[in-house]
Amino acid sequence: MNRSFITQMPDKSGAFLQASSIIAGHGGNIVRVNYNRSIDIHTLFIDVSAEEESVLDEIEAQLTEVGYLSQNTMEKRVLLISLKLPDVPGSVTAVLEILNRYKVNIYYMSSQENGTMYQHFKMGLHVEEPHIIKKMLVEISSVCEVSILEYDSTEKMLDNTVFYIDFAKKINDLLSLTPEQSKDFLINSNRMMQLLDERNEKPYKTFEYIEKYARFTAAYKGDAFIPIISDMKIAPGVSLCLIEPPCGSNTYIIHTENEMLFVDSGFTCYKKEMLHLLRIMFDDFDNIPKSLLLTHSDMDHTGLLSIFDKVYVSGSCYENFRLENSGENNFREQNEYSNPYCKLSAIISGYTPPNMDTLSVIGTKEDDGDLSYIGSMQAASLSLDIYEGKGGHVNGETVIVCQEHKIVFTGDLFVNIRGFSKEQRNFNALAPFLMTSVDMNPKLAAQIRKQITEKYKGYLFCPGHGKWITNEC
User: How far is CA 291 from CA 21, 58, 348, in A?
Assistant: First the structure.
């Protein structure tokens, strides 16, 4: 482990020799020294490495005893950071202005061109007031990408700050986020860290699951995107296709030769892969008239919304998207504790709110029932009845029923856990850690699920996740 000492030495020969003898005498190793006589004739920065923290404590005590460390200097902090700045004139100015505002001295700076559009500035910062470090780092991070190379990890608040800044950088490198996405990711990581601190919860497990989520979605891009595909005839000239991706919702396609109706459509981050697949599966896919019926507004069901001229939604689902397009918190984000998790998930999955002009409201729930009829529609030769739930899973949830052919599209009010693939099982295990709860009201969701399974015995259940299954409950 390392510790930085900001020593105040007399201006005479042998001063550094005495300090180095004290450090060596306790088994410490000097790993970095910085001294600039033109800036401060007395201040010498020494970074010391030792196997045990007690050794560093002994070194600190003896340096204090000989007058090389005062109480004032021991309260200071030294940080070594790296900044990724555009290789253009004046790019470092904004950072220097922040440091000046916080009265932070630079005791070391190094930078050089590397043949790219960016320069990496290394800065050693001498911070007189440790309590401002967290706020300062967050502000610098809003200007450019920052990495903390070395710091005093005995400061818990700083340790957490370094942790989530490094975490945000790791996700940025994994997903190649835009500067704006990187900034939003850092801000929401900071908010989540604050919430966990306030609840006195250890943050590392939560951030570990978010990283798993990001790595999982990234791992199945391109050629690695291999969904399970099933198909069945449900009437003369009418087929039902099911696409189960490794993660994200099922996509159902009711199709004839001349028309397609999609029910849900997975994650946005797999839009390219899904379109490639659909063009292989269906001749002249781009020219076939198609629409989408959305069971609910969660981002893992909305990945292909942008390709449809018409998207059918419940009234509450429409309101959810209206809030997002207005820059307001959607229904899930209105829960303060869930908010940063949802924001981070949106960045990882590439989610953007749909074009409101493409949305068509089927109907609006007007009573207080657990499951209320809101309208019907004809699509791909089928008659479909639409019911809106009370918000057990999420506000705007719908159940779609084809009475003639005994088919129910349940959204996430019912999922076939036993029908999960290994990949789906692993991914869905992350959900409670990312959203604090899959269902906004678990008790109500269970109540509605019971009603559905009891009412539609013998029907083919097409769940939001997992393979379709005949309801024999």
Answer: 78, 72, 26
Identity (one letter) of the amino acid at 49?
S
Note whether 408 and 234 are within 8 A (CB): no
Q: Determine how β-strand 43-49 pairs with β-strand 77-86.
A: unpaired
C-alpha to C-alpha distance for 192 and 188, rounded to whole angstroms: 6
In this predicted model, what pLDDT tens digit does every residue of 326-348 receive, in sequence order?
Answer: 999 999 999 888 888 899 999 99
Q: State the sign of the Cα–Cα–Cα–Cα dihedral 334, 337, 340, 341.
A: negative
Tokens of 380: 């791909």
Close Cβ partners of 327 (under 8 Å, ≥ 6 residues apart): none
In the structure encoding, which two tokens stand for residue 33, read together? 């020294």
The two three-digit tokens of residue 471, written as one number: 């309801």
Asked whether 141 and 186 are in contact (CB, 8 A), the reply is yes
Cα–Cα distances (Å) from 254 to 114, 233, 270, in that order, read 54, 10, 21
13 backbone dihedrals φ, ψ, rounded to 5°? -65, 145
**How would DSSP label each residue in 338-401?**
THHHHHHHHHHHT--PPPGGGEEE-----S--SEEEEEEEEETTEEEEEEEE-SSSSTT-EEEE
Q: What is residue 147's three-state secondary structure?
A: strand
* Strand-strand pairing, 29-35 and 251-255: unpaired
Evaluate if residue 184 carries a pLDDT over 50: yes
Per-residue pLDDT tens digits for 217-269: 999 999 999 999 999 999 999 999 999 999 999 999 999 989 999 999 999 99
DSSP single-letter state for residue 10: -
For 391-445, write each residue's pLDDT tens digit: 999 999 999 999 999 999 999 999 999 999 999 998 888 766 665 568 899 999 9
Closest by CA to 466, choosing from 401, 406, 421, 413, is 421
Burial class (CB in 10 A: 0-12, 13-18, 19+), 117: exposed
**DSSP for 48-80?**
EE-SSHHHHHHHHHHHHHTTS--HHHHT-EEEE
**Token representation of residue 303:** 């990945």
- Nearest-CA neighbor of 420 among 228, 204, 176? 228
In sequence order, the 6+-apart residues with CB closer than 8 A to the CB of 398 are 294, 295, 296, 314, 317, 362, 374, 386, 387, 388, 389, 411
* The two three-digit tokens of residue 366, written as one number: 């007007």
Report the alpha-carbon distance of residue 276 to residue 249 in Å, rounded: 18
Token code pair at residue 251: 């996509």
pLDDT, tens only, 101-144: 988 877 667 776 667 888 888 887 877 676 788 788 888 888 88
Helix (H, G, I), strand (E, B) or coil at 162: helix
Q: Which residue has the tokens 């409101």?
A: 356
For residue 138, the one-letter residue type is V
